[in-house]
Input
Amino acid sequence: MHRAAIRAYGVLDADRNVAWRSTFVVDRDGLLRWGQAGDRLMVRDGREILRVLDLVDALRRKG
Output
């Protein structure tokens, strides 16, 4: 079970035995709707994450 999630999402940095810096949006049904992964120097854009969350919410309300 240890590191199961980071293996499942394919973001395990085996050389350092840690996860790559990553963000995933999973909807209420457990479906992966969006993700990004990069090295530890990657800068996350909070506006992009909020945009994706708004889009997922709009699609859920529509559907």
